[in-house]
Design a protein that fits this description.
Layout (H helix, E strand, L loop, with lengths): L1 H17 L5 H20 L3 H6 L8 H15 L3 H28 L21 H21 L1 H17 L5 H38 L4 H7 L2 H21 L10 H8 L2 H8 L10 H26 L5 H12 L9 H17 L21 H8 L2 H31 L9 H10 L4 H14 L7 H18 L4 H13 L3 H14 L4 H13 L3 H14 L4 H21 L2
């Protein structure tokens, strides 16, 4: 759907930017932001990641093109179209809320509808924070109608609030309070109080059912667990921006940026054992990945559009979703919907529903001046051809991605007795040449096959190393992949290559525990025990907050120090 947003919204965005509409400057800022992002992606160490984003995250340049396309589509909607949009958004939100209720009531612990972390409902969005954003946006969308006609909208509001309570997300509480205060201010105490009662009823039902852990999370939360990690990420991100102010690390490559500047303290508290894929703040994400130039264009696009929007449910939805994105990960489902709502809110102001249909100006995306050259240009088929080609390309990419994902699933989810499917994994790598993950899956299956030994051991191990090198070609700034290649080289007894691989991993992240420990292991294999102790000591510093990993490394360090004393090496 994101790819189709990008394809269908491409021409309307270009028309909006070249029109005399009141939105031409926000649209031009959006185009400028996309241009900066594209240059940043192409200039980054991994242009394919910059273009597509990380696998299973997808927040590269195409993601922002989809968000801009959604915005331009929203600006082009007439009153009837906006009613369809309202209905579609509401149906999607209510469907997710009902699934969330089912997850909690059935206490689903396995299958595709299992509770997130065994406790929180996530609908079909994969993460409760994304469901939280969707349901809060839906509540803002229906707020005005619910206040004006509470009998008709009581059930949807209660269901949305109940689903929201079952996410057990704490941020929903202050945002919901803000929505209630807005309802009281805009619609008076009686009508606003009715909205409070409806949303409160949903939360009360969830609390009384005993199926939600929200109360536990609220009472057990601390400053460290709630904002400690975020503040560290924001501080480290600001540090990166100061040193790379122009173009940033490239769209979707916040992980690369954070790895490159990570201090020991940041690694200990945030990165150790984790892959940091998001800045938990949309503005930080934009600044780190596209630089201050991209951030300036993004701010003009966002706030310029909001200034020209009508105060309506669509604007409330966009603002609420963006409020969640200020402290939570950006998402390929949520942020484009927020921009779609923002675009629709501008259309409400410029194409109000209380004017007869025949008196409407053309959609914002089609507004042109009365100049004859402009009228002639509007009649040319270029727009239709461009949109058709873009849609076909979007469908091709989308279908191959879905097929590739299915083959990746088959690669590691086969029948009993045959835990891996090498042919399916290779098909996935061919269908998904943009990401390293599919090639890593092939490499790991090949590596698993070497555990059986046999005459083909070395050739299979060489194949595994080859696929690891393929993965590195797709993402050369991932320390995990360099470490995997180093381990393959150690198994092949190519110690010089293994050492170089480990050093490459440390050039990506100088505190990467596995690389430091690997260098210690490599030094031990060559009986360089003093070097081994040095590397194990550094690795131990990175895991002081992980008692299990620290105990293992402490044992290796003691062994290396003992051998160093006995051998003098």
């Amino acid at each position: 759907m994101l790819l189709l947003f990008a394809a269908i919204g491409l021409v309307p965005l270009a028309r909006l930017a070249t029109s005399r509409s009141a939105l031409r400057w926000p649209a031009r800022a959006a185009v400028a932001f996309l241009a900066v992002g594209l240059v940043s992606a192409l200039a980054s160490p991994s242009p394919n990641i910059g273009f597509f984003g990380l696998d299973l995250w997808g927040t590269g340049w195409l993601f922002w093109l989809g968000a801009a396309g959604a915005f331009s589509i929203g600006t082009s909607l007439g009153p009837n179209d906006r009613e369809w949009l309202f209905g579609g958004l509401l149906v999607g939100a209510l469907g997710n809320a009902l699934i969330a209720i089912f997850q909690v009531v059935s206490n689903a612990q396995s299958g595709s509808l299992a509770l997130f972390d065994g406790k929180q409902a996530d609908g079909v969005l994969g993460n409760p924070v994304h469901l939280e954003a969707l349901l809060l946006g839906a509540l803002a969308l229906v707020l005005g109608r619910a206040c004006r006609n509470p009998l008709r909208w009581a059930a949807p509001v209660v269901v949305l609030a109940l689903g929201l309570e079952f996410t057990s997300e704490r941020l929903a509480l202050p945002i919901l309070v803000a929505l209630v205060l807005y309802a009281l201010y805009s619609y008076g105490v009686r009508r606003g109080g009715t909205f409070l009662l409806m949303s409160g009823a949903g939360y009360a039902l969830g609390f009384l059912s005993g199926g939600s852990g929200l109360a536990t999370r609220v009472t057990s939360g601390t400053g460290e667990t709630t904002f400690g990690t975020r503040i560290r990420i924001w501080t480290e991100g600001a540090h990166y921006v100061l040193h790379h102010p122009l173009l940033g690390a490239g769209p979707g490559q916040l992980r690369t940026a954070m790895d490159s500047v990570a201090s020991l303290s940041f690694y200990q508290h945030v990165l150790n054992g984790k892959i940091l894929t998001d800045g938990h703040d949309v503005f930080l994400e934009v600044a780190v990945t596209t630089g201050l130039l991209g951030l300036a264009c993004f701010v003009v696009w966002l706030f310029g559009s909001a200034r020209g929007a009508a105060r309506c449910g669509f604007l409330g939805m966009a603002a609420t979703m963006l409020a969640v994105e200020l402290v939570e990960p950006i998402n390929v489902a949520i942020l484009p919907l927020a921009f779609l709502g923002l675009g629709a809110a501008t259309a409400v102001r410029l194409r109000p529903a209380n004017v007869a249909e025949e008196t409407f100006a053309p959609p914002l995306s089609e507004q042109v001046s009365d100049d004859p050259s402009n009228r002639a240009r509007a009649k040319r088929p270029y727009a239709s051809v461009t949109t058709a080609v873009a849609v076909l390309l979007a469908l091709f990419l989308g279908v191959t991605m879905v097929m590739g994902d299915a083959y990746m699933f088959r690669g590691t989810n086969s029948s009993s007795g045959q835990p891996y499917n090498l042919a399916a994994a290779k098909d996935a790598s061919r269908l998904l040449p943009y990401w390293s993950d599919s090639a890593i899956e092939v490499a790991q299956i090949e590596a698993y096959d070497t555990t059986a030994g046999g005459p083909n051991y070395r050739s299979t191990l060489l194949d595994s190393r080859h696929w690891t090198a393929v993965a590195l070609g797709r993402d050369p700034r991932d320390p995990r992949i360099w470490t995997l290649q180093a381990r393959a080289d150690v198994a092949l007894k190519a110690y010089g290559l293994a050492r170089a691989d480990y050093y490459q991993a440390l050039s990506c992240d100088r505190w990467y525990t596995q690389a430091l420990g690997g260098l210690g292991e490599l030094a031990g294999l060559q009986s360089h025990w003093k070097d081994a102790a040095h590397w194990y000591r550094l690795a131990l510093e990175t895991v002081v907050l992980d008692p299990v990993a620290a105990a293992d490394l402490r044992g290796l360090l003691e062994r290396a120090e003992l051998n160093a004393r006995s051998t003098g090496r």
